[in-house]
Design goal:
By secondary structure, the chain is an alpha/beta fold. 37% of the residues lie in helices and 15% in strands. The longest helix has 18 residues. The structure holds fe (iii) ion (2 copies) and zinc ion.
């Protein structure tokens, strides 16, 4: 069965997100661990978390894909920005352990002119500082569109980070279809070739989650503007091949399309109908 969900608002807590997910026929979801622009996170409400965990087990949820604030930049030039990023990362990883065994996805960072090599070193150094052998959370590096000075625009850059990290079993990749398309991977005409590249350079065993988005722009545009499923340059046919690909179909798929909850419900229903794996599970 297709595992699919979308970004949900964490404002009303974990159980409320779980119920929203079930309402739209999702069995996973993503949420920002705090205001996407950063700032202080709400204290974990352990009663809410316990109710959510029971609810999620009853409804056969698969792994959640939490998202770090997108302003968190661990390879910034300014030390205060890096310190802030370190504090967020440390706090988030601790909070993630309240819901054990899930995914925490983050944008590797923007090197802001220092060069991607320097960015890669700084990201790996920070990961070696915060990852713990005892953590149950897997930290996912997101594939980036290559906007501005983003690090992680190619499989090579992501692997360059991973190979410098000691606790590699705590690391994985979240592949964003809009981002890799924008950074130049042609998943419309050559999905198999792109996945073979991924496997050769990083290894498909590291691929843990998919952000399923259409793109407003052509392949290689480096823009990062998400479109609704079937309304962009990637299109429904290619995205259907992504969800049905034998090497991907067990992964959690997260929609980050410009939608409200009703729009997400429609996309989930459309994709479940386009899914070749039957809903017997
Ligand atoms: Fe993201
Ligand atoms: Fe994404
Ligand atoms: Zn994006």
């Amino acid at each position: 069965m297709l595992h699919i969900g979308c970004h949900l608002s964490s404002a009303k807590g974990y159980l409320a997100m779980g119920k929203d997910a079930v309402k739209i026929n999702a069995d996973t979801f993503a949420f920002f661990t705090r205001n996407p622009r950063g700032g202080k996170a709400k204290d974990i409400d352990h009663e809410d978390v316990q109710s959510f965990l029971t609810y999620a087990a009853e409804h056969h949820f698969t792994k959640l894909v939490a998202h770090a604030p997108y302003t968190m930049n661990i390879c910034a030039t300014k030390e205060n920005i890096r310190t802030f990023a370190h504090e967020i990362l440390t706090d988030d990883l601790q909070r993630m352990e309240a819901t054990p065994g899930n995914y925490y996805n983050f944008h590797p960072g923007s090197h802001v002119g220092q060069g991607s090599q320097q960015g890669i070193e700084m990201i790996a150094t920070e990961l070696n500082r915060v990852l713990r052998p005892t953590q149950t959370t897997t930290v996912l590096l997101e594939t980036m569109a290559g906007k501005g000075t983003e690090v992680g625009r190619s499989f090579e850059e992501l692997q360059d980070i991973i190979k410098r990290v000691e606790l590699q079993d705590k690391l994985g990749i979240c592949l964003d279809t809009c981002h890799i398309w924008d950074s130049g991977y042609d998943i419309v005409n050559d999905l198999d070739g792109v996945l073979a590249d991924f496997d050769n350079i990083i290894g498909l065993h590291r691929l843990k989650a998919i952000h399923l988005n259409d793109s407003l722009n052509p392949c290689g545009s480096c823009k990062d503007r998400h479109a609704c499923i079937g309304e962009g340059c990637i299109g429904l046919e290619a995205l259907t091949k992504v969800i049905n690909h034998p090497q991907l179909q067990e992964l959690p798929f997260i929609l980050e399309t410009p939608n409200d909850l009703d729009g997400y419900a429609r996309e989930i229903s459309l994709l479940r109908k386009s899914s070749s794996s039957c809903a017997s599970g």
